[in-house]
Amino acid sequence: MECVEIRGGKPLYGRVEIQGSKNAVLPILAACILHEGTSRIDHCPRIQDVFDTIMILRFLGCRVWWEDQCLAVDASKVSRCKIPAQIASRMRSSVLFLGALLGRMGRAQLPYPGGCVLGSRPIDLHIAAINELGAKVEEKEGCIFAEGRMLKGKEITLRFPSVGATENIILAAARAQGITVINNAAREPEIGELCRFLQKMGVDIREFSGGRIEIAGETCLQDPKHDLVADRIVAGTYLLAAAITGGRITISRMPQEHMETVTALLKNMGIGIEKHGCDVLVDGSRKRRGIELLETAPYPGFPTDLQSPLMALLAVTEGESRIKENIFEDRFKTAQQLNAMGANIKVREKEAVIRGVPTLYGTRVEAGELRGAAALFLAGLIAEGTTTICSCHYISRGYENICGVLTSLGAEIEELCN
Ligand code: UD1
Q1: Whose CA is closest to atom 29 on ligand 1?
Q2: Which of 173, 233, 280, 359 could lock onto 215 through a cystine, CB 3.0 to 4.6 A?
Q3: Which of 116, 195, 392, 403 is catalytic?
Q4: Is 4 in the pocket of ligand 1 (CB under 6 A)?
Q5: What stretch(es) of the chain map to CATH 3.65.10.10?
Q6: What is the pLDDT of residues 278-294, one digit of tens each?
Q7: Exposure of 348 by Cβ count < 10 A (0-12 exposed, 13-18 middle, 19+ buried)?
């Protein structure tokens, strides 16, 4: 799917079931290689990042197959410790194979990771921590070479609670000698998911309040089976889709306990969000208010991944709203595309001022990264006329069959070949 045409203006109605979480499954797939046996992950999403990770796993020597919604990974024969550049350059999470390969093979070679273009996205915290566990890490000609046959547990304090660095340390520590302690670890729910998966594999790993994680390295592991948590960012995107189109959607499998900051903010804006047993009913038909100031922050703060989709909603919400982006400096690039559709958004450094307009107008826009693409889909759903979104391959990285889901809710969408 390279281009998509959306004829906007249709309120969305119906039910959507939320796919398994992308940001949870990627470190879990890397963790599969720690165990010389078969891991099973239920509710695994069929998204491009998962397909690319499957290619990495197969390249390393794993057998990987689908059993309906469950992905099975047999890592009994891992024979390589190098990640191919072609796949790694598409996906930042390929960096997680640094910790996982060190844990399994004592060596790792991977190209500098790619993924969404969101500013410089350094990996200094990952490398410093892996060094502290006793591995020798070198960066040469755009590649990372790491060697450490016998990693030793250590107390590591992160200067910033980086999600990826926390995951890499956990993966490397799972088979290290002794106990590793991480202070100021990331507290995103996806970290808890990785810990639960590793516990099922037999690793003694504990999460404490205040961002402390303790991992006792283990060499004798067992076959885990894990039911993946639903994707809080995808759920948030469909909440916003109901809101922006003024529709009513029932969301099933929404990870409500991980979304309290998001739902509280949307309720404050005037959007109806009600629990009905395990389902959540979203009512976007009420009048909305803007937001004085929203700041993105590490969990439990407002997720940076929903910042662009929220900006699309604020673009058509009466009054002035402000957003401060504290995590990724380049997340505001989508503002330019929204402005091309008639939005009034001014960006200065980390802050965006959004003056709500009555409507947006369909035109040709270009997606630049995954969550920015989601924001353009939302804008297209409300715009007058036809919006053509190019470079849509970004959205396939994280959203399972988004065109099919939106069509089932009443949107008019056509996928174009080029
Ligand atoms: C993960 C998520 C991404 C989400 C982000 C923040 C995955 C696959 N991706 O990305 O969707 O937006 O968390 O919730 O799970 N930093 C450094 N040095 C480092 C590492 C990070 O300075 O070594 C900085 C980054 O530049 C950024 C901040 O820390 O400003 C957050 O990055 P991090 O938490 O590591 O995000 P990712 O793991 O890349």
Answers
A1: 162
A2: 173
A3: 116
A4: no
A5: 3-18+230-416, 22-227
A6: 899 999 999 999 999 99
A7: exposed
pLDDT in tens, 332-388: 999 999 999 999 999 999 999 999 999 999 999 999 999 999 999 999 999 999 999
Q: Is 224 in the pocket of ligand 1 (CB under 6 A)?
A: no
Which superfamily does CATH assign the domain made up of 3-18+230-416 to? Answer: Enolpyruvate transferase domain (3.65.10.10)
Mean pLDDT of 254-259: 96
What is the 410 CA–ligand 1 centroid distance (Å)? 35
**Is 3 an annotated catalytic residue?**
no
Enumerate residues 6+ apart whose C-beta is below 8 A from 384: 8, 9, 359, 360, 361, 362
Q: What is the pLDDT of residue 120?
A: 59
User: Which pTM was predicted?
Assistant: 0.96
Query: CATH number of the domain at 22-227, please?
Result: 3.65.10.10
CB-ligand 1 contact for 165 (6 Å cutoff): yes
